[in-house]
Amino acid sequence: MIRAPLQRLPLRSIDNYEGLITMQPDKTTQLWMLETMLVSRAYEDAIKAAYMEGKTPRFNMADGPIPGEMHLSSGQEPCAVGVCAHLSPADAVTATHRPHHIAIAKGVDLNAMTAEIFGKVSGLAGGRGGHMHLFDPTVNFCCSGIIAEGMGPALGAALGRQLRKEDGIAVAFIGEGAANQGAFHETLNLAAVWNVGVVFVIEDNAWGISVAKSASTAVPNNAERAAAYGIPGYHVAENDPDAIYATAREAIERARSGDGPSLIEIQTLRLEGHFLGDAEAYRPEAERESKDERDPIPRYITQLRGAGHLSDAEEAALRNSAAARVDAALAFARSAPLPLADDALTAVFA
Amino acid sequence: MIRAPLQRLPLRSIDNYEGLITMQPDKTTQLWMLETMLVSRAYEDAIKAAYMEGKTPRFNMADGPIPGEMHLSSGQEPCAVGVCAHLSPADAVTATHRPHHIAIAKGVDLNAMTAEIFGKVSGLAGGRGGHMHLFDPTVNFCCSGIIAEGMGPALGAALGRQLRKEDGIAVAFIGEGAANQGAFHETLNLAAVWNVGVVFVIEDNAWGISVAKSASTAVPNNAERAAAYGIPGYHVAENDPDAIYATAREAIERARSGDGPSLIEIQTLRLEGHFLGDAEAYRPEAERESKDERDPIPRYITQLRGAGHLSDAEEAALRNSAAARVDAALAFARSAPLPLADDALTAVFA
Amino acid sequence: METATQTPTTERLTIARAMATALAGEMRHDPNVLVMGEDIAALGGVFGNTQGLLEEFGPERVRDTPISETAFIGAAVGLASVGMRPVVELMFVDFFGVCMDAIYNLAAKNSYFSGGKMPVPMVLMTSVGGGYGDAGQHSQCLYGTFAHLPGMKVVVPSNAYDAKGLMVAAIRDQNPVVFMYHKALQGMGWLGTEKGSVVDVPNDSYTVDIGSAAVVRKGNDVTLIGFGNTLHTALKAADRLAQEGIDAEVIDLRSLVPLDRDAIANSVTRTGNVVVVDDDYLSYGVSGEVITVATERCFKSLQSAPARVAFPDVPIPFSPALERPWLPSPEHVVTAVRQQLGAGE
Amino acid sequence: METATQTPTTERLTIARAMATALAGEMRHDPNVLVMGEDIAALGGVFGNTQGLLEEFGPERVRDTPISETAFIGAAVGLASVGMRPVVELMFVDFFGVCMDAIYNLAAKNSYFSGGKMPVPMVLMTSVGGGYGDAGQHSQCLYGTFAHLPGMKVVVPSNAYDAKGLMVAAIRDQNPVVFMYHKALQGMGWLGTEKGSVVDVPNDSYTVDIGSAAVVRKGNDVTLIGFGNTLHTALKAADRLAQEGIDAEVIDLRSLVPLDRDAIANSVTRTGNVVVVDDDYLSYGVSGEVITVATERCFKSLQSAPARVAFPDVPIPFSPALERPWLPSPEHVVTAVRQQLGAGE
Ligand SMILES: Cc1ncc(C[n+]2csc(CCOP(=O)(O)OP(=O)(O)O)c2C)c(N)n1
Ligand SMILES: Cc1ncc(C[n+]2csc(CCOP(=O)(O)OP(=O)(O)O)c2C)c(N)n1
Ligand SMILES: [Mg+2]
Ligand SMILES: [Mg+2]
């Protein structure tokens, strides 16, 4: 009887580590990441405001221009931009119930997406799906409301590209809470056994609704679970676009070169409640108060300033264009017509 | 960005390793294990013969005294005895669609079990369950036909004992094919997070029906997956009662002393087809031919002989008593009456 | 103490509070009762039905789980096998797909597979229903899905009194009981609340028989059959019909398994007309079964074709413009009855 | 080559061979078709329906999977999203509980959630039915479970001709199609075989419309409705009834979703009597829906209460002494018709 040997990861030599330092994004990429984060944040703020219309003083989820649950991604923007900076429209992405930042970084049509969130006929799905069900085939993006449900489809999309000898890999984003769902295990094993070019990205915002990661997860860090599938696992401790960019680059290059799947866990930050209306009583005082100083966007701006990659003027310009794009999207959505009742009965079958 | 550190197992000091050598079973235990294996093997042979009645020349699963699928455990007896040697009736065991050896080692009433397999009114469930659904509350044994379905119930039974401050832990047996099912992941994580005294035993017979372990599993050895839950993982390379006994002892003692779950994988041997009637065309010639020389029972007998723990007379006596018990059980089952049609409508609800 | 003399004998409660009260009461009486699920401890349940339990009973008996439904529902079966009485929550019924094996093949069948020797006393609480714009993976009812499969009882309370009584009965039942509570009735301010679901509830504990329907309004011209949220739809329709001189009887099924076939037959035999109201998908579901029971049992008495108002066979759409027109409404029911009685003449 | 001139134009096939033939034919024509599942490659499928595919098409397109239904069914949806046409096997329908989310919430809803822009052309093959002593987790039909949930088509062939035509149609369909094949009809010697399921099948490829029922026997006194295995039960009952001078019409539904409501209505309107035969659980299933369609559409024409013969609401028992008496049989159907016509007089 022998104790299980520690699983060997395909280890990288020191010079590769060195190499990684040089895997930093160039200035253009950094500015794209910043701009995309600014758009994403402006978007969430605008959606929040619109969502609250008609919900005050009495908060009833059914009221206002945007009913239902609303899961905002504020604070998690670095995960989206650091990964999607490496993707083209041919690459498939599956996201979760918290999808806006990823949809925006993947290039989903902002007008049609917003109209969908407003339940309008010009929405991506004519209002059938809403904020948890955003599908844009033109950039191969989709998301869903069931934990870990997007993992299998990402595997399949990547496998399909391989079989059809087409360019394109796939990335599945999930939350850290999803790493305890059976689909996580089954999909990582299958991707490894079939050597599929898919990258699994865990956005660890430390919470699954009110349940802390430490109360739900047997390992401190889910990247360690990659060893259970003999694939590389990466842990990104900083909620920083450049660090995420460098990590994602290695994993995505591996996928593109036919060397199979990887697992990445990123320690990120949920600035809002689980959904709008969540009072977060379960969240420690200190953590709630420290949120703002941990906001990744001001920090990234400071970095870029320090590196001389961003001027006052450039920042102002980016903020203005971001605001403009978001305003335009919301204006488009608000002015779009509502669907007809009978539209509900179509598109069940293609 | 850092590569995931290798998962640290709770390491055992060298003297514990030494200690383990002395964790060998004593002679009495060895003879119990041999006797139990002999009963189990005689049982499978007898069931096989009975199962084939009415199924030759034309093999129709619906015919004969025992219809339906029949999954025999011949060759896997060491897993059952090496683990169950440490268990009392208060300890819960869940098994799979291949349950006979474990049921016998756990002390399930052989007559009632056989009558159940024959679909008789005196069966454990009056013929409602059959060979894949053997339930004996008096020794806390049950099994099921769905892959990995027994893992959650084992966790729950062990947790229940803890909460009720009663003696007893639980062991869930599964096959190596089940280690790729979502329930495996969810249950191991939950057992670890809640520190439940449950032991998960994987009988690795190298095949999931016709699919080889290497074609379905991303790691060579599932014990490595214990690291994904921060729990100890053991790999037993020999299909040997003493080695299994020693390993199980450590894991079960850990469970009893409140130190949480463990995972054990045992390399065992499927002597028969997946079910009776399986021609095993998928199984390599060489492997099929080498089966008999790898049969663990003759090997164990040779060991005991060498150690001077077994005499001719003792072996003969054990074989005779085994045959007698099995004959009695089959006689009991054959002579038991069939249930009435209306019995099918009872026991759906307690 | 729950019945301390100074406390009033009844209290107006929402279904959420009634469920929490029933749970607390049973947990006080029986140390074997425990609650498990996602966000049921510190948060008190996304839908408020476990509010206060963690504070009173602590983390051993009120357990937040990982997002591992298969594992914790399977664990509940094991807990039940050694004498515990677990109450587990599946946050939204829409999530049944990740854990149905543990529910229908395990919890629901162990009694049968053991010849009744290993019963599975457990409760599965799960929220159902839409109407607030939560779209196709968070708004379904799936009553038919659970009621079709043998081995589990299925209850659907329409008001706080029944919710408490059915929950106490479910916890004390030796069998798995699926307790489906409708979000529109839950009494969470943020989901809006059907007023009729908030009623006076005795502080003392009591049970409502699982398997008995209730005639909540007597009438002679037509039988309207609802349950959960649609019971209120039926009652509102009955009021409108009364203004037209149509005297409707209204039945609250309360339990889908066992189904109170006698209650259906007794009423329809008298009225000769029946409309079933269901907010689950129309085809192969509750509405078809109830109508079939009515035709099997009352064919000779039927004066018109039994009718149904249910959600069309499409995933629940997000946009209120798409969802609300199709949710069963009093108007739909009134129209169905008018057509029926017209056609019946 | 499948239609090479020297080959006869038709061949007597079992359903297993018809399915394999359909798959091979489509795989030859369309490189995007691939097959995935447990034991479908080297073994050719536990029920023979993928026999020979690995040899002809290789391991890239004929993939054995780990026992990870959630992963490979989810993967099929992803494959379909980039232009593949996956055919996946769920070995026994009884296993749906471990992967239903990927089926009903994902495959069945992506078309709707995408406004029709991301259809999911895939086929889920799954074996159903008992009668050979495989007990409660390997003998169920669960027709009602799949038919109740929107977004997937559901077909159930009763013979090899329909099996091939429905499989070709399913593979070419832009939507998820659940293809439920009954073990008693499969033609595996080791499961016994209903003779009526083995019929002449054209070598050329053809389709059978998904959603169209077939009148397989004309008659005037009563309509017997079956599908899959129960179609044969209905046909045998019709023969017996003929000897009693009762002229039964027999309908093979073939497809549960879409359901051919017109075919039901047209026949029942003429005969005035209907018996539905279903080997799935009785309550909240197919029998209730079909009877409800008959009453909704033909109430005025009904001469007797529609009746049903189905499996009682208990897990399928193992012992033949317990299972066989309750499986729908020609005797059950004949008795139901006798009672019905007696009662109708
Ligand atoms: C299978 C399933 N179980 C439970 C839920 C309810 N639920 C929605 S979000 C959520 C928490 C998810 O946490 P995490 O994966 O960390 O994502 P985050 O919300 O933090 O972005 C839960 C439990 C669900 N949608 N699906
Ligand atoms: C969820 C589920 N999927 C598939 C099956 C069909 N099946 C029965 S046994 C088996 C192989 C199991 O292999 P393993 O776990 O190694 O056990 P073994 O048969 O080798 O003892 C499969 C796929 C099942 N019973 N349950
Ligand atoms: Mg999280
Ligand atoms: Mg195996």
Strand and helix map with partners:
The complex is a heterotetramer, with two copies of chain A (350 residues) and two copies of chain C (345 residues).
Chain A: E1 2-3, H1 14-21, H2 27-52, H3 77-84, E2 92-95, H4 100-106, H5 110-117, E3 141-143, H6 151-163, E4 170-175, H7 182-193, E5 198-204, E6 207-208, E7 211-212, H8 213-216, E8 233-236, H9 241-256, E9 262-267, H10 285-290, H11 296-306, H12 312-335
Parallel strand pairs in A: 2-3, 2-4, 4-5, 5-9, 8-9
Antiparallel strand pairs in A: 6-7
Chain C: E1 10-13, H1 15-29, E2 33-37, H2 53-61, E3 62-64, H3 69-81, E4 85-92, H4 100-107, H5 110-113, E5 123-128, H6 143-147, E6 153-155, H7 160-172, E7 177-182, E8 199-202, E9 214-217, E10 222-226, H8 229-243, E11 248-252, E12 255-257, H9 261-271, E13 274-281, H10 286-298, E14 307-311, H11 320-323, H12 330-344
Parallel strand pairs in C: 2-3, 2-4, 4-5, 5-7, 6-7, 10-11, 10-13, 13-14
Antiparallel strand pairs in C: 1-8, 6-12, 9-11
Helix pairs in contact in C: 1-7, 3-4, 8-12, 9-10
Bound molecules: thiamine diphosphate (2 copies) and magnesium ion (2 copies).
Helix-strand category of chain C: alpha/beta
Shape of chain A: globular
What binds here, in terms of ligands, is: thiamine diphosphate, magnesium ion
- Number of contiguous helices of chain A: 12
The portion of residues forming beta strands of chain C comes to 15-25%
* Low-confidence regions of chain A: 1-21
Order of helices and strands of chain C: EHEHEHEHHEHEHEEEEHEEHEHEHH
For the report, how would you describe the main beta sheet of chain A?
Answer: 6 strands, parallel
- Rounded mean pLDDT of chain A is 93
**Structure summary, number of beta strands of chain C:** 14
Shape, per Cα inertia axes of chain C: globular
Q: What's the arrangement of strands in the largest beta sheet of chain A?
A: 3-2-4-5-9-8
- H-E string of chain A: EHHHEHHEHEHEEEHEHEHHH
Number of strands of chain A: 9
Give a short account of the largest sheet of chain C. Answer: 7 strands, mixed
Largest protein interface, residues of each chain: C-D, 52 and 52 residues
What radius of gyration of chain A results from the CA coordinates?
20 Å
| Oligomeric state of the chains in view | heterotetramer
Work out the strand percent of chain A. Answer: 5-15%
Q: N- to C-terminal separation of chain A?
A: 57 Å
Helix content of chain A: 40-55%
